[in-house]
Amino acid sequence: MKLTVFGATGGVGSEVVKQALAAGHHVTAVVRDPSRLKVEGELLEVVVAGLSEHGALTEAVSGRDVVISALGARDRAPTTVVTDGANAAVTAMRSAGNRRLLLVSASGAFVDGDAFFTRNFVKPLLGKLLKHAFADMVAAERVVRASDLDWTIVRPPRLLNGPHTGAIAVRTDGNVRGSYSIDRADVADYLLRAAADDSLIRQTASIARV
């Protein structure tokens, strides 16, 4: 498989790059600062470009089987980085004729399928704490859903830096109940699985640690 990763130097993105290379996939990593990319490999191509550089991004996605946008906010300040990444990916893919797009969002921004206490007490508090990041992800999802691409939105909960386990709970009809975290390595694992799963096209998958 040939894939392009936006946000390749982030926690999830770098895990996607590492695991994809280990599996023998060809990876194009789109980065702004190549010095922050700590992964190397013969099958790795690094493209240095900002999200507004349409020509470079179109070239970066051309001929690829899947594009994964794993961008995320680094703090609690107002941000549009996930939305900007979604817009940039959709625009570049349309120009290049690509179809398969995966977007990393967050289950915390949504209450679909949540239990009563989580929906009415936990999520309102979390929403106040992370309101800017969540607003960005809601907007990014809207961009992806409005596109004509073969998209899958992946919503993990709180991200941790534990080891890769492969033990991942998944729901496509709402958030996973009773599990409120997942390791970034397992998010990357699921993204690579989902990229090759046509049953997830135009689906939203909430994931969490088993």
UniProtKB/TrEMBL annotation:
SUPFAM superfamilies: NAD(P)-binding Rossmann-fold domains (SSF51735). Residues 7-197 form the NAD(P)-binding domain. Signal peptide: none annotated. Pfam families: NAD_binding_10 (PF13460). It comes from the Bacteria. InterPro entries: NAD(P)-bd_dom (IPR016040), NAD(P)-bd_dom_sf (IPR036291), Polyketide_Oxido-like (IPR051606). GO terms for molecular function: biliverdin reductase [NAD(P)H] activity; riboflavin reductase (NADPH) activity. This is Putative NADH-flavin reductase. It comes from Amycolatopsis umgeniensis.
